[in-house]
Amino acid sequence: MSREFVTLVEMGLRDGLQNEATPVPADVRARWFNALAKTGLNRIEAGSFVSPKWVPQMANTDEVIAGIQRRADLSIEVLTPNQKGLEGALAANADVCAVFTAASESFTQRNINCTIAESIERFRPVAEGAKAAGKRLRAYVSCVVGCPYEGAIKPAQVAPVVEQLLALGADEISLGDTIGVARPKEIHALLDAVLPLLPAEKLALHCHDTRGQAVANIYAALERGIRIFDSAVAGLGGCPYANGATGNVATEDVLYLLDGEGFDTGINLEALAAVGNEICDFLERDNPSRVGKTFRG
């Protein structure tokens, strides 16, 4: 009997590297993208089309994409926060365009200087342009459980944001525990509020491991039928042991869980761990992935 499939969306080259102090050259990022794709990952964020003035780590994302070895089952995904970003993504022929907002008004105001409703309205031309070009539209909702400014976020605050993004035309919505405060009980409460709004196959979970709960939260979501998870090779994006760190959950750790639970991902864990360790060596940093460390010689 065939095993049920779970999709991992690889965040390391975007959500991970944008938090590294030193920018990585585009040709190196393209090489890492191709190495990740060879492990069996077929959805990978290549970067974001934002001004290098604000996020220098994401400069030359078009050059990264130009260096990718394309194949029919490989989805090249990028963040496109505005019209100019969309134009860059379309020129590079990315497959998925992504926009982002939050479930916290304070977080949205502090980060993009507008309300949640205004942020979604700003995305309208991006969504329309992506759809017109035949691209899939992904939408991120940050701070779905907790906010660094407001504290706890109620599920009732998340549901209306999801509804607005669906109305905008989002094909998939990724719920982000941005500061890594969630535990399984909060994940179940969140899904109680959101799952009635859309099919489970259109919903993804983006867990951060700041407090070491990401794998437990992913397991809770698996119990609820969620089959798409965001993760970052080698836990790129911050130290999971520091208070307030971004701490993306490591793809290796998630894959180890999924393999053990009998899910199919199409990803080779040993090959993935080798890429993660190579990236950490290049960045001259320790590998936060507990599973990744076990593959070091």
Automatic annotation (TrEMBL):
CDD domains: DRE_TIM_HMGL. It comes from Marinobacter zhejiangensis. Gene3D superfamilies: Aldolase class I. Coiled coil: none annotated. SUPFAM superfamilies: Aldolase (SSF51569). This is Hydroxymethylglutaryl-CoA lyase. Keywords: Lyase, Metal-binding. Residues 6-273 form the Pyruvate carboxyltransferase domain. GO terms for molecular function: hydroxymethylglutaryl-CoA lyase activity; metal ion binding. Belongs to the HMG-CoA lyase family. GO terms for biological process: ketone body biosynthetic process; L-leucine catabolic process. Pfam families: HMGL-like. InterPro entries: Aldolase_TIM, HMGL, PYR_CT.
